[in-house]
Amino acid sequence: MVGGEAAAAVEELVSGVRQAADFAEQFRSYSESEKQWKARMEFILRHLPDYRDPPDGSGRLDQLLSLSMVWANHLFLGCSPRGPE
Question: Which sequence spans correspond to the domains of the chain?
Answer without folding.
Answer: 2-77
